[in-house]
Fold:
Amino acid sequence: SKTKQFNEAKSLYKRVIEIRENLANENPVAYMSNLANTLINLASLYLETQLDEFFYDAEKLYKRALEIKENLANQYPETYMPDLANTLNHIAELYLRKTMFISGKAQTIWFIKKIKTMSEEFQDLCFTEAENLYKRALEIQENLVNENPEVYIPDFATTLNNIALLYSDAQCLTEAENLYKKVLEIRENLANENPD
Structure:
């Protein structure tokens, strides 16, 4: 059953986190990134459940991973800035999903009991948090694109698309349309350069 698979996966991730925490304590440079990646994987598993009870656990794991990635990016920017941008995208997606559910645009129903009682202030907070995280990721990716466009332009386009989705869900349609057009232009150029 899915519940059994979820519980097995959760248990395995928790064991791996414990192992990687021990390794990271012994050799932070070699293992902290792996620890952060496992935290992100477990957070993503929680998010996939679409259950309110796991949303907050996912948020805590993502934030812990973000702290690790920020520290690594500060020490080794050339190596870890792309990872930092991806982690920011993960956390922003968490808030984007929450915003989508609060605004009633969800395709699936999670947080349904909470949605009915959440205030517009909370929705605005989730939107602002997601927007700030996406913009931070975008700023990092812009710098990476300037250094190596062939490698980083697809990630840049994905983040632009994520921001456009956020704006679309918030009914900021002009801003969303402008970003979608920019994404389309980038992806058309990529397709023309790499038709296979």
